[in-house]
Amino acid sequence: METILLAQVMGGFYGLLAIIFGAFGAHALKKKLTPEQLHSFETGVKYQMYHAILLIVLSYNLGFDGPLDKYIVNCFVTGTLLFSFSIYGLCLSSSKGKKLKFLGPITPIGGLLLVMGWALLLYSFIATIL
């Protein structure tokens, strides 16, 4: 899949799911999650939406003429998936008393990929100046 198309499709998909999950959390999960779990769930939704918007913006602004653009998009797509969705899994499983502990280490890996995506994006901006 072309990088620009990947950024647009995943940005749209993540945005759609962020709205659905946000409404689900605000209504259906409000009585089932503790305040801490609900806060964590909302953090996953926020980060998912931030990166959905970022992917859409990047798809219209990056040159997509080099491998760096592909790395940036892949870091954001994969990082969002690992970060936000592992948070959802941790919150939902712990609310049922069966916390999926294997998801715990996945969240920081996703966060690291998001940081790498932002660092590569910053590098690409600086490289165009120099």
Automatic annotation (TrEMBL):
Localisation per UniProt entry: Membrane
Alphabetical keyword list: Membrane, Transmembrane, Transmembrane helix
Membrane topology of this protein: Multi-pass membrane protein
A GO cellular component entry from the record: membrane
UniProt-listed InterPro entries: DUF423 (IPR006696)
Transmembrane spans: 6-26, 47-64, 70-90, 102-126
Family designation: Belongs to the UPF0382 family.
Name of this protein: DUF423 domain-containing protein
Organism: Flagellimonas aquimarina
